Amino acid sequence: MSFQEQLPIVLGSLNSGFLQTLRLFAITLLGAIPLGLVIAFGSMSRLKPLAAITRVVVWVVRGTPLMIQLLIIYYFPGLMLKTNWWGSGESGRFLAAAIAFIFNYACYFSEIYRGGIQSVPVGQQEAGLVLGMTRPQIFFRVTLLQVIKRIVPPMSNEVITLVKDTSLARIIALQEIIWAGQSFLKGSQGISGQIWPLFFTALYYLIFTGVLTVLLGRLERRLDYFR
Amino acid sequence: MAILEVENIHKQFERTQVLKGVDFRLEEGKALSIIGSSGSGKTTLLRCLNFLERPDRGRISIRGEVLFDAEDAVTRRESETRKKRLHFGLVFQNFNLFPQYTALQNVTLAGELMARERPDYRAKKREIRQELEEQATALLKSMDLGERLGNYPHQLSGGQQQRVAIARALALRPDILCFDEPTSALDPELTREVLRVIRELAARHTTMIIVTHEMRFAREVSDRVIFMDGGVVVEEGPPEQVFGSPREERTRRFLSYAEDQ
Fold first, then answer.
1. Where are the domains of chain A?
2. Closest-approach residue (CA) in chain B for A127
3. I need a surface site. Which of A148, B5, B77, B143 has the fewest CB within 10 A?
4. From the list A127, A134, A146, which residue is nearest B100 (CB)?
């Protein structure tokens, strides 16, 4: 098969792999951004036991490889509980991967949020209080935007890392883009022993992270109007 | 009748007893200055009045109505605190303007949030907002900030920021406006423009409590002066007496240090 014949086959495969990568990326952000806030409030709770438990969980999740978390979450129900929680096939793998990613990233986000919230001077809250604002009003109208401004740069880092981390889902055979590119090493759709699809795979990542870098940079600049 | 009556306020942090029974009264339309060295409890006292700290003992009343009584659980309720705070305005040492809002928005924000609780807010949203904006604009203009309405805090000098903060506190029409060392973060030139604004407020008989290290200013602007030391009121009287012929040895010592500066 000539390169011209192989190219559309490889691109078709990479495109559908990339779509799965994007889905995992999007659902992780969608889940982890709010869950991270819940965990952040947990770790800052005035209830000492709740704060302690939350911090231990965050320590465990951040202190172990995401790959192990993926393997355990995916295989544990089947092997230990003899149940088929995740369902079969690709949708089951996606569900397990999504849960592992959301929880893992939420823990990282929670620490960024916590730092951001605690870095807003307490005087901002006091100013709101003496002006008769309620605590929710102070959080949403005064503190939140200042927190967002502070966390955009570290969050951008995490988001870029997430793009590449989605490839870890390959370990439970999720058919994301690495899985698709790698299939042409072993042989798939009549193409085998080819390394160039992996270079193309890398290019997908590069372009996507490039686009994200530009978008996140824009967001950062939009918040430049205050200090 | 006194507009404000403060009785036997005690406040302890961890093991430190910061306020050990503070009493004073303030008449409507008068300016009261509180002087004293750092750590004497002046700031804590102001924070108690604004319900940023809760006294362990004592009573705070406005126009005879008890706002807080450590003995009475009803007055200690958190849910009631919000409304009570509105009797007081507080201007902070380091301004604490909201950085993401313009000077004008800083002044209108709280009023706007409060207006939302009015039953007619939805129907009259535009008029209410316009009224708040006009009022805030007038306030800022009266403080020579007419050109600065659309500026963000970081685009303003410290003196301008503090004047916005004063306007922000005044916009809610508090019964008593409190200042917590309003010029301590400012250089002498910026201090002057802020003191001028406070002086004008005094001339218009705004009821004020001013915690300050500016002795000359305190002497000139206030109707009453309190000297605090070690968490108690050591001396209280009209400025001529406290500054001119202090009765207490501790007051004399403090004032002689202040003069040396």
1. 3-226
2. B96
3. B77
4. A146
Whether the per-residue pLDDT at B196 is higher than 80: the answer is: yes
Superfamily of domain A3-226: MetI-like (1.10.3720.10)
pLDDT of residue B75: 78
Pairing of strands B208-211, B31-35: parallel
Instruction: Name the H helices within B86-157.
Output: 103-115, 121-142
- Cβ-Cβ pairs closer than 8 A, A with B, add up to 59
List the one residue out of B113, B166, B160 whose CA is nearest residue B136: B166
CA Rg value for chain A: 21
A122 part of contact set with chain B, CB < 8 Å: no
Nearest residue on chain B to A130, alpha-carbon basis = B85
All residues at 6 or more sequence positions from B39 whose CB lies less than 8 Å from its CB, including other chains: none
Inter-axis angle of helices B158-171 and B121-142, to 10 degrees? Answer: 140
Specify the DSSP element, H or E, that contains B176: strand B176-180
Report the side by side order of strands in the sheet with B88-91: B88-91, B176-180, B208-211, B31-35, B224-229, B232-237
- Complex ipTM value: 0.93
